[in-house]
Amino acid sequence: MATAAPISFLVSRFPNPSETFIQAQAEGLLERGASVEITAFAAGDPERLGALRLKWENRFNVHYVPLPKTLGARLVAAPQAFMDKRAFPAVFDGGRFGDDASSLRLLIAASRWPKEPPKPRVWLAHYGRWGRFACALRDLGLIRGPIATVFHGRDMSSYLKKNPDAYASLFQRGDLFLPISELWREKLLKLGAPADRTLVHRMGVDTSRFKLAPRVLREGEPVKFIGVGRMVEKKGFDDAVRAFASLRREHGFENATLTLIGDGEMRDYLENFATSLNLGGLVRFAGLLPHAEVRRELSEAHMFVLPSKTAANGDMEGIPVALMEAMAQGMPVLATRHSGTPELVEHDVSGLLCKEGDWRTLSANMAVLARAPERWAAMGEAGSARVRAEFDLKVWNDRLLQRLNLLGAGKRALEPVET
């Protein structure tokens, strides 16, 4: 079922290895016959982009409007931008465009936007700030068509902590608001989002790619824990390392292992931290791995650990896709009552939850499940069933296309769509 109007994604960077859900959405819409373009303000992984273009040939179109990241670089580019008359309101109408004007982002983007007259499209902006930016671009006459905005994690947490009124103009001018969790929907409504146009839209996983494989502890085999994610504060991997050290020292699981897959600003710190706790090679830092290797590593482990927490700057998760992938394979999970995670993980059914930052309880939960391998299969089956029923990417891509079809047809008040 193709959409009547073409769809344009508006994103900060593409392809971004930490935002594969955007690529999955775009490909899902292409699979359904939609005409899809992606407009990004910075280039991402060239190898991934080359593979996408090879796969989809002329159906996969990406356009870049380079937007300097720092204010200093934008100041250098500003004199040239002033020569484009389309960009004038982006600077002189601060009351209308707020931070997008004062930061010079809108000025630079407007001056570098394609010169041809815009054709009507349905715009899908990922993250709240880019939804607001899309509305500004439309006000300047640079784009045409309705705008849907997907809200994830940091745009609903650390960004709002610094800019509490950031979305007031977006709620007035945007057409559809798609938070990825019930928690974020309730927060958007409290901020003033219109209820009839604010609908939960999950970031799911392609469950057909994950075979349910109940976990079994073979005789003499160590209990194997695994975590996957960026090495940043909100993932809570420092708590995972602390909990693992306690599991070995205080709970007697001296032969347990922990594998952490991913990279990021905290990786060196985490490796040094593990060494300081005398964990040596018992915590394996595998770095970034291809998706196929991640799935293989998951298939060889027993339990998934992701103790997400609110970072010092307020940054929070949405609902981690890594948790969905682990559960889809039948892994019991150890996580925290953080953000939308309890909407995915049911405590004592598909895993065990604790308060965020509570590494002692996390360690105790690891010990509880490590001592009860007879529970793993049932927990894994329950988690897999939950993901397949409520977080299947194909279902949500079908729903997304239906909603964008309605939006493109001029229907602003969008009723829930049946799956």
Topology:
Blueprint: E1 7-11, H1 20-31, E2 36-40, H2 46-56, E3 61-64, H3 71-81, H4 88-92, H5 94-97, H6 99-102, H7 105-112, E4 122-126, H8 128-139, E5 147-151, H9 158-162, H10 168-173, E6 176-179, H11 182-191, E7 224-228, H12 237-249, E8 257-261, H13 267-276, E9 283-287, H14 291-300, E10 303-306, H15 321-328, E11 333-336, E12 351-354, H16 359-370, H17 376-390, H18 393-408
Parallel strand pairs: 1-2, 1-4, 2-3, 4-5, 5-6, 7-8, 7-10, 8-9, 10-11, 11-12
Helix pairs in contact: 1-18, 3-7, 12-16, 15-17
Short summary:
The protein has 18 helices and 12 strands.
Keywords:
Rossmann fold, 2 domains, 18 helices, alpha/beta, 419 residues, six-stranded parallel sheet
Structure description:
Helices cover about 40% and strands about 15% of the residues. By secondary structure, the chain is α/β, with parallel strands linked by helices. The protein folds into two domains: about 5-65 and about 115-205 and about 390-410, Rossmann fold (3-Layer(aba) Sandwich); about 210-390, 3-Layer(aba) Sandwich (Rossmann fold). The strands form two sheets. The protein has a six-stranded parallel β-sheet with strand order 3-2-1-4-5-6, with helices on both faces. It has a six-stranded parallel β-sheet with strand order 9-8-7-10-11-12, sandwiched between helices. The radius of gyration is 23 Å and the shape is elongated. The model has no long low-confidence stretch (mean pLDDT about 95).
